[in-house]
Amino acid sequence: MENITLEIRDDGIGVATLDMPDRPFNVFSEQMMDDLETTIARACEDLHGLVIRSGKNSFVAGADLMMIKDFANMRFEADWQAMRHRFSRLGRLFRRMERSPIPIVAAINGLALGGGLELAMACHGRVCIDGAVPLLGLPEVGLGLLPGAGGTQRLPRLIGIEAAVKMLLDGASVTPEFSLEHGLVDRLASEEDLLDVAVGLVRTIPPGARWDQTQWQLTRTELALLDRPDWHEFCVGCGGWSEKQHNFYPAVGSIIDCVGKGVGLPFDAGCDVEWDIFVDLMSDPVAANMVVTCFLNKSLAKGADDSLQVLKASVRRYLACNEASIGRVARAAMAVDARLLVEWAGTDVSSVGRGLSQEDRTAGLAMLAAIALDVWKNTDGFHDQLDAAAVLRAGWPQWTGGPIAYLAMLQRGELQGADLSPDLNAAVAAIELALKTGASYTRVSQAA
Questions:
Q1: Which is nearest to 13 in space by CA: 165, 264, 228, 207?
Q2: How far are the Cα atoms of 1, 36, 38, 47, 244 from residue 32, in angstroms, in the given order?
Q3: Positions of E strands within 125-173
């Protein structure tokens, strides 16, 4: 195997070391999934137990960039069932591992993010290196996604629904101490003792997950949470999202639905709920935009000073043309999550934002369109760099993916309820070049 080395100890316990060659971090690629599948199959046949650890300074840092980009492009190329089959592969693999006849323990030596934490949660026990630095997290919401390999189902069953909802919706990592206190991990250990403690845990725990035991069920308190009439609002508050803001980020509602509709069901049925919702989310242009800009292209934002000057000039021209109605502009900006963008350009709108209306939302979408069109007329074609810098350095709303990605949404008719003026619609329609092919930018300048 290319990515995993399996060592078999004299006591019949295996140690699987994940160490992708020529990579700074372990990530889940198709090949890594193949190797993990082979490892689990062999361990179940020949071993008494298994420890999964990393050969790098971190555990597993999430998903492979190119695989995620392929996922984003599948909404243009594949049907729903084909998407579901591919997207659920890692979750199905984790489920087979979780139901293995031998105990499996994760030895977490560093960052365990996204799919890395989902891998650890699918093990029967978890030992984490001790320390004050937050190491364990599910940051998918910040990329417009959700943990789609069983994460929205295992986390609430491990640490409780309220704590899980907060962790899923704010995307922040937690410390080893928090993880131990809340039941996310079973032991803490020093770096030197991590493997020994993990092997010791393998020897003392039975295989299987608690939720697969016949007598296991959610507590009455947990069930009451799921039955709250204000369940959605409760979750939005737990995650720190305002009701207006989250409407532009479908991952928030998708995560809430995964927990609310899945956690009260038997585990496999809950995973089916999660995987169905994940496919629907990946079919949403907002998710694809955020994945491309905030994840795949984020490194491009550092070297885009010229692009940012173009953007700032465009924002300031718009503000100057609307100076007489700056209060309305401020409300429009707040309604589409563009407050940081307007303030970055030099106009303070922090005191505005209560009681925003549908009219404010419509005005905000029009404002973004007008600015994006102005940017488009003055750029040289490096759209991926421009969008990454706009979102990550200038406060352009993340849900759009950036000014050019936003124009591509309008060009494709993907933004429902935009209700732009005839002039703005005509200006978008006049862009002869298809701004994106699939989830990728067209590498031609607008002047060509």
A1: 207
A2: 9, 6, 10, 21, 40
A3: 125-129, 136-137
Identify the three-state secondary structure at position 63.
strand
> In 10 A of CB 356, how many CB atoms?
19
The structural domains of the chain, ordered by start, are: 4-283 (3.90.226.10), 300-441 (no CATH)
3-class SS of residue 216: coil
* Token code pair at residue 199: 């092997």
Ranges assigned E (strand) in 9-103: 13-18, 49-54
* Size of the chain in residues: 448
Bridge partners of 60, per DSSP, are 112
Rounded Cα distance between 373 and 236, Å, is 33
Name the pLDDT band for 437 (thresholds 50, 70, 90).
low
pLDDT tens profile 245-255: 667 899 999 99
pTM (2 decimals)? 0.91
Q: Over the stretch 254-273, which tens digit does the pLDDT of each residue have?
A: 999 999 999 999 999 999 99
The answer to whether the CB of 3 falls within 8 A of the CB of 38 is: no
Residues whose CB falls within 8 Å of the CB of residue 419, separated by 6 or more in sequence, listed in order: 362, 365
Distance CA 226, CA 218 (A): 10
Q: 3-class SS at 38? A: helix
The strand pairing partners of 129, in sequence order, are 189
Residues carrying an active site annotation: 118, 140
Greatest pairwise CA separation for the chain in angstroms: 80
